[in-house]
Automatic annotation (TrEMBL):
This is Myb-like transcription factor. Residues 4-61 form the Myb-like domain. One of its GO terms (molecular function) is DNA-binding transcription factor activity, RNA polymerase II-specific. Residues 4-65 form the HTH myb-type domain. Gene3D superfamilies: Homeodomain-like (1.10.10.60). InterPro entries: Homeodomain-like_sf, Myb_dom, MYB_TF, SANT/Myb. Pfam families: Myb_DNA-bind_6. It comes from Rhizophagus clarus. GO terms for cellular component: nucleus.
Length: 133
């Protein structure tokens, strides 16, 4: 990347999204059997890093299902985590088409928070019952 360009931080705009999509599709047509070179994309997309381009593409633009997880997907994620608590988010996302590792991670973190709040509520209820008896 050219050193005299400043890197844009923050949200992407519609024009940047369209340009990124166009450049990725162009790259895929030129090199159909290769992994996308995000360094190459960075050089074409000005003011964004290769990491920003890759994350925008994989988490927001490319075949991403942003609707809420279905009950089946949620139970599948929970079961996979139960079977192997250290399974990477990427491996779970590979089994759920249209879902990104970021979606999986956010679901797991939300579930952990719900679980902690539930445990706290139970403890509080138990302490109130103990005091009243």
């Amino acid at each position: 990347m050219n050193d005299n360009l400043t890197i844009t931080k923050g949200p992407w705009n519609k024009l940047e999204d369209e340009r990124l999509s166009r450049e990725v599709e162009k790259y895929k047509s030129l090199y159909p059997n290769q992994q996308i070179s995000w360094k190459y994309i960075e050089e074409v997309i000005e003011n964004r890093t290769s990491k920003q381009c890759r994350e925008r593409w994989t988490n927001h633009l490319y075949n991403v299902n942003k609707s809420p997880l279905t009950a089946e997907e949620e139970s599948y994620i929970i079961q996979m985590r139960k079977d192997d608590p250290n399974i990477p988010y990427v491996q779970i996302a590979e089994k759920l088409p249209g879902r990104t590792p970021l979606i999986i991670k956010n679901f797991i973190y939300r579930e952990r928070i719900k679980e902690r709040k539930s445990i706290l509520r139970i403890r509080q209820m138990m302490s109130v019952k103990y005091i009243n008896n």
